[in-house]
């Protein structure tokens, strides 16, 4: 089974996992900055008092070294859509922008300084050979989201990718898609609008400090900056893993991808 055919209840997490298995896909989220770490699916109430009960899909700790040693935190709410090889879309969340804005507002109220929506589009094998990105089927959803998100100061990014299919019908690789309108074909994200920046506030700062302390205390691991911080809901522990190679919690061996 391919990611395009994944069960809907697990598709978002599987897609995030797949993005962080390929450096050219997730590196673009740093926006040219150097990253110290990325954290995935982190509960807001982790050591912050339990007032906020949502999860943050992606958190990044970034800096502009050597120009600046000041740390920058960015957060993303992730939504996943599907694009068939004929260019039609599925699960595009048309009409659900209000709910998405509520989720983004929760990030902002939590104290996150940069809040963006990341629409990831999983493209069926064969999409790139017949279509450009974004295809006409996305015009309505992109324009409506762009207008609403820019109005309230949220960022908006698109990340499309296609995976191949082997003779057994399973995924065998990923391809970042070149973007149309004369953009650099090596770019993997389309940044439609940047978020309005604000200073980080509590309780986000407490959560960020906890994640950073965990990362720095995780030992001298080879290529540590290429590993990701995740949270296991089964044993209630943070873990530092390589999402390219690992899907099970190192402590309890629970499958991290299918946790609800």
In words, what does this structure look like?
The chain is α/β, with parallel strands linked by helices and 260 residues long. The protein has a single domain, classed as 3-Layer(aba) Sandwich (Trna Endonuclease, Chain: A, domain 1). The chain contains five helices and ten strands; from the N terminus they run ααββββαβαβββαββ. The protein has helices at 8-19, 23-26, 97-110, 139-151, 204-216, and strands at 34-43, 55-63, 71-83, 89-90, 115-123, 155-165, 171-176, 190-193, 228-232, 237-241. Strands 1, 2, 3, 4, 5, 6, 7, 8, 9 and 10 form a ten-stranded mixed beta sheet that branches. A hairpin with a 7-residue loop joins strand 2 (55-63) and strand 3 (71-83). It starts with 7 loop residues before the first helix and ends in a 19-residue tail after the last strand. The model is unreliable at 179-186 (pLDDT under 50).
Output mean pLDDT. Answer: 86
Which class best fits the helix and strand makeup?
A: alpha/beta
Task: Kindly provide the name of the CATH class.
Answer: Alpha Beta
Q: How much β-strand is present in the residues?
A: 25-35%
What quaternary form is this? single chain
Flag low-confidence runs: 179-186
Task: Describe the sheet with the most strands.
Answer: 10 strands, mixed
Span between termini: 21 Å
**Range of helix content:** 10-25%
Give the overall silhouette.
Answer: globular
What sequence of helices (H) and strands (E) makes up the elements?
HHEEEEHEHEEEHEE
The overall number of domains is: 1
Number of H/I helices? 5
Number of E-type strands: 10
Based on CA atoms alone, the radius of gyration comes out at 18 Å
CATH topology description: Trna Endonuclease, Chain: A, domain 1
CATH architectural arrangement: 3-Layer(aba) Sandwich
